[in-house]
Specification:
Shape: globular
Helix content: 40-55%
Largest sheet: 4 strands, parallel
Radius of gyration: 18 Å
Number of helices: 11
Bound molecules: zinc ion
Distance between the termini: 17 Å
Strand content: 15-25%
CATH topology: TIM Barrel
Number of domains: 1
Order of helices and strands: EHHEHEHEEHEEHEHHHEEEHEH
CATH superfamily: Divalent-metal-dependent TIM barrel enzymes
Structural class: alpha/beta
Oligomer: single chain
């Protein structure tokens, strides 16, 4: 079953008087949404009690939970200490996911601004391998790590690099942020065919099963020569890419991904718009 939901909490959620993320699952269900990406992007600060309550609410409202791990993870740091800390941040996120019953965590893999891309990739893969082993030892095996395709040129995490990372363990699922891909390719996603090519590349590298279960981030995006500049909302039509194109390619491949909308401010409203676009296209096939 394909699922749609927001990354974090929309402004309207608070404007309507809600105060805690624990209220999100019921609020999302009411909007016809079925997924929620909880943000630990600034650090894993959620208490066990709060995580368990959120998880309970998500189960009651049939909301698929994922967690975005801290942004400052850098598995490709030149400094051993920073690589060790990165492993710890991933494990902390997995522990919170285990409390919540969240099935997936999204991680940024690191920076390649000061080191060669080749060194960055092989170093990150080594850290990831150690992290998976430790996670299994700690009993976090139910949680899937989803390394994310990132939007800036100097970040480790173009599509090739993320697929190489996902090859080391068949449980890993890529987070493909199509806004980031579009930015990194300086506006490369402009037709159904452009999206098809991306999906085929993923299938050829890690297989159809993982392609079908992909973790997807989607928003319109502004970019510069350095890649990603700013995420925009679905109504900001001067920026690409178009979700219609992706939806058509997804339907052809019979995909059942989790689609998380990362629009500015209106992520829940926009997730509902993406769902509507998808249903129209899937229904018309
Ligand atoms: Zn991200």
């Amino acid at each position: 079953m394909i699922r749609f939901g927001p990354s974090g909490n929309s402004e309207s959620f608070y404007d309507q008087g809600n105060k805690s993320s624990i209220q999100m699952p019921a609020w999302l269900k009411n909007m016809g949404l079925t997924a929620y990406e909880y943000q630990c992007s600034k650090g894993v600060k959620i208490s066990e009690a709060m995580a368990r309550q959120l998880g309970e609410q998500a189960r009651q409202n049939d909301i698929f939970l994922s967690i975005h791990a801290p942004y400052y993870i850098n598995m490709a740091s030149e400094e051993q200490e920073k690589r060790d800390n990165s492993r710890r941040y991933i494990l902390e996120t997995m522990r919170a996911a285990t409390w919540m019953g969240a099935k997936r965590i999204v991680i940024h893999t690191g920076s390649a601004s000061k080191v060669s891309r080749k060194w960055a990739l092989s170093t990150a893969i080594e850290v990831l391998r150690d992290t998976i082993k430790e996670a299994d030892d700690l009993g976090y095996s139910e949680v899937t790590i989803c390394p994310e395709v990132l939007g800036k040129m100097n970040q480790l995490g173009d599509l090739y690099e993320i697929l190489e990372m996902c090859k080391i363990d068949e449980r890993l699922i890529p987070t493909v942020d199509f806004g980031h891909l579009h930015a990194r390719g300086l506006g490369c996603l402009n037709s159904v065919e452009d999206f098809r090519r991306v999906l085929v590349t993923i299938e050829n590298n890690i297989g159809i099963d993982r392609l079908r279960k992909l973790h997807i981030h989607f928003s319109r995006i502004e970019f510069t020569a350095g890649g990603e500049k700013k995420h925009w909302s679905i109504s900001d039509t001067q920026y690409g890419p178009e979700f219609e194109h992706l939806a058509e390619a997804m339907v052809e491949k019979e995909m059942e991904p989790v689609v998380i909308c990362e629009s500015r401010e209106f992520m829940a409203e926009d997730a509902a718009k993406l769902k509507e676009i998808y249903e129209k296209i899937a229904g018309g096939q």
